[in-house]
Design brief:
The chain is α/β, with parallel strands linked by helices and about 290 residues long. It has one domain: Alpha-Beta Barrel (TIM Barrel). About 40% of the residues lie in helices and about 15% in strands. The chain has an 8-stranded parallel barrel with strand order 1-2-3-4-5-6-7-8, surrounded by 5 helices. The protein is globular. The chain starts with 11 loop residues before the first strand and ends in a 10-residue tail after the last helix.
Length: about 290
C-alpha cells in the first residue's frame, strides 16, 4: 500500500534535467514551469562529456536563475579540460547566479569501461575538483554516489574512501546513481555513517518512461534490475498509457519504502519529462495544481 499521510512535512525533492537542444527548448521550459509548482529544493542541469554542452548548460541555468523561483545547480566535470578551463566555467556559472555545483569527474572520452586519464594540466578526480571549486568561491557542492559500486571501483570500500575525500574537501551532499534495490542504498547509507563521513546521502530516483532505455542506462552504470520489476513492464512497449501508470506506481512504491526508512529528500532524474515526476510528487503531498501546457 502506498501511503504518505503520516507525515509529509519533512519531505523535500530536487530534479535533474539535461540542457535542451534548440528543437526541444519549448518542451523543456514547459517541464520547468510544471515542476516549479512542486517547490523543489533545487534543480540541476547536466554537463555533457568533455564540456560539450557547456554553453547550453550555462544558458539553461542562467535563465532558470533569472526567470523562475527555482535554485539552479550546474553540473561540472573535469574530463578533457585544464584547470584554468574548468575554473573559467565555474566563474561563468557564478556570474550567471549559480551558487550550487554538482562536481563530477565525468566519463572517459571512450565511455564507461575505458580508462580515465586526467588532463595533463587538469584536475585529477572529483575530490580534486571539489577542492578547486571551494577555492574559487563559497559554493554549495554536491557529488555522486553509487549504491552498487562505481563501475571502475574494485570495491565499495574504495568508493567510500573517495567519498570521504570529497566530503573532507567541501562536498556536503552525495546524490546517488539510480537504483531499484533499496537495500543497496540503505547499506551505503549505513557504511557512510559507520565511517563517520559527514555528508548527506540523497537517493536518485529514475521513473521508468522506457524500460529498454532504462535497461541500457543500468548496464552502463552497474545498476541491477530485479526480475520482478522487469516482469511488470513485459509487453508494455506499445501500451504507453499502461506503462506510465505502472512506472508511476513503481516509483511511488520505492519512495514510500525509503520514506519509512527515514529518507526525507529525493532527487528525481526527469529525462526532461514532467508528467511522471509531477504525479509522484503529488502522491507525496507536494506541489499545487500546475497550469495546463
Amino acid at each position: 500500500m502506498i501511503a504518505f499521510a503520516e507525515d509529509v512535512s519533512g519531505i523535500t525533492v530536487s530534479f535533474e534535467f539535461f540542457p535542451p537542444r534548440a528543437d526541444g527548448a519549448e518542451g523543456f521550459w514547459r517541464t520547468i514551469e510544471k515542476l516549479e509548482t512542486v517547490g523543489p529544493s533545487f534543480v540541476s542541469v547536466t554537463y555533457g562529456a568533455g564540456g560539450t554542452t557547456r554553453e547550453r548548460t550555462l544558458e539553461a541555468v542562467r535563465r532558470i536563475a533569472a526567470g523562475t523561483t527555482l535554485r539552479p545547480a550546474a553540473h561540472l566535470t573535469c574530463v578533457g579540460a585544464s584547470r584554468e578551463e574548468v575554473n573559467d566555467t565555474v566563474r561563468a556559472f557564478h556570474a550567471a547566479g549559480v551558487r550550487h555545483i554538482v562536481a563530477l569527474r565525468g566519463d572517459p572520452p571512450g565511455g564507461v569501461g575505458t580508462k580515465f586519464l586526467p588532463h595533463p594540466e587538469g584536475y585529477r578526480n572529483a575530490a580534486d575538483l571539489v577542492r578547486g571549486i571551494r577555492a574559487l568561491g563559497d559554493f554549495e557542492i554536491s557529488v555522486s554516489a553509487y549504491p552498487e559500486r562505481h563501475p571502475e571501483s574494485v570495491s565499495i570500500e574504495e568508493d567510500l574512501a573517495f567519498m570521504a575525500d570529497k566530503a573532507e574537501h567541501g562536498a556536503s551532499r552525495a546524490i546517488s546513481q539510480f537504483f531499484f534495490h533499496n537495500a543497496f542504498f540503505l547499506r551505503l547509507r549505513d557504511r557512510i555513517a559507520a565511517r563517520g563521513i559527514k555528508i548527506e546521502l540523497v537517493p536518485g530516483i529514475l521513473p521508468i518512461t522506457s524500460f529498454a532505455r532504462v535497461s541500457e542506462f543500468a548496464a552502463r552504470c552497474g545498476a541491477s534490475i530485479p526480475p520482478a520489476l522487469a516482469r511488470r513492464f513485459e509487453g508494455l512497449d506499445d501500451d504507453p498509457e499502461t506503462r506510465n501508470l505502472v512506472a508511476a506506481m513503481v516509483a511511488a512504491e520505492q519512495v514510500a519504502a525509503l520514506r519509512r526508512e527515514g529518507v526525507t529528500h529525493f532527487h528525481f532524474y526527469t529525462l526532461n519529462r514532467a508528467d511522471l515526476v509531477y504525479a509522484i510528487c503529488r502522491v507525496l503531498g507536494l506541489g499545487t495544481v500546475a497550469k495546463a501546457a
